[in-house]
């Protein structure tokens, strides 16, 4: 830019699509790049002094990531035209070939390392979600157990792998994002709306971290509006996401509503749990610390 390479920034929005129907997909794709922002909330129990550490970590990390993304995109648009970006199968590779020459061969390695780091954080955070849900009785008991030596929620980590393998059969990243983003942003919007509800229904509840009410209200409205709009703009992908969400109904009935389970069901469940305990070498958390 300092050398005057600003030709790609002239009329940067000249070919834009102004239809509001494309807003949901643009929102989903854009927010996917920031998808790790809520993972820190899943591991609150692992954080020392969370009342101070978590808000500080979220603010600092978001500032760093946003700055990095903006500078990266500025570098892309300084080097590559919008038409070339649309035709490129891998923008980072095209950028490195244009700017770095033979060194571009190392870019896929750096991308793989970046994906590995992202996967590591995702597994660490999402496994805690299964672990706590099981501890609260919302999922099979085995998922709330930890390894006798490593003290890690091994079953909750392992269960992520078959789910991930199933998702790989979609074959198309963009279709997968469309399927799953509907459920993700629907429940994020509802969860934030629940915070607003509790602010008024339980005003005396201990709240170590508070923000002005318009922030969660605006965020919740945006999420729910985009989700509702996606029902109209892309009903097929949204319908698939809705069907995936409905698969949680049997689990909810089985573990939450169905209290009077028959003896044969309890015996079978206990037998499966004990077998998995032996294979995985896991025990309930309270037994591991005795």
Automatic annotation (TrEMBL):
Localization annotation: Membrane
Membrane topology: Multi-pass membrane protein
Chief location of this protein within or outside the cell: membrane
Keyword field contains Transmembrane helix: yes
Keywords: Membrane, Transmembrane, Transmembrane helix
GO MF term (any one): transmembrane transporter activity
Transmembrane segments: 20-42, 54-77, 105-131, 152-170, 182-200, 212-232, 238-258
Protein name: Solute carrier family 7 member 11
């Amino acid at each position: 830019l300092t050398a005057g390479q600003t030709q790609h920034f002239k009329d940067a929005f000249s070919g834009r699509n102004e239809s509001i129907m494309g807003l949901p997909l643009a929102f989903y794709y854009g927010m996917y790049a920031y998808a790790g922002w809520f993972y820190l909330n899943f591991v609150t129990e692992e954080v020392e002094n969370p009342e101070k550490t978590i808000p500080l970590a979220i603010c600092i990390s978001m500032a760093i990531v946003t700055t990095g993304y903006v500078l990266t995109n500025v570098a892309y648009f300084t080097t590559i035209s919008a038409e070339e970006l649309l035709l490129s199968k891998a923008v980072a590779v095209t950028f490195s070939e244009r700017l770095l020459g033979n060194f571009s061969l190392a870019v896929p390695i750096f991308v793989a390392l970046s994906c590995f780091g992202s996967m590591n954080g995702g597994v660490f955070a999402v496994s805690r979600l299964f672990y706590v849900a099981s501890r609260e009785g919302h999922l099979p008991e085995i998922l709330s157990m930890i390894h006798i030596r490593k003290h890690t929620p091994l079953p909750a980590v392992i269960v992520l792998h078959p789910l991930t393998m199933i998702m790989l059969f979609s074959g198309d990243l963009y279709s997968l994002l469309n399927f799953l983003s509907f459920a993700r942003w629907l429940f994020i919007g509802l969860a934030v709306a629940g915070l607003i509800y509790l602010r008024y229904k339980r005003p005396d509840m201990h709240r170590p971290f508070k923000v002005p009410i318009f922030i969660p209200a605006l965020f919740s409205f945006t999420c729910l509006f985009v989700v509702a709009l996606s029902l109209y703009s892309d009903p097929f992908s949204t319908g698939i996401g809705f069907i995936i969400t409905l698969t949680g109904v049997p689990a909810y009935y089985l573990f939450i509503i169905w209290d009077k389970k028959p003896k044969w069901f309890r015996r079978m469940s206990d037998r499966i749990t004990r077998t998995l305990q032996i294979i995985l070498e896991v025990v309930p958390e309270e037994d591991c610390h005795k």
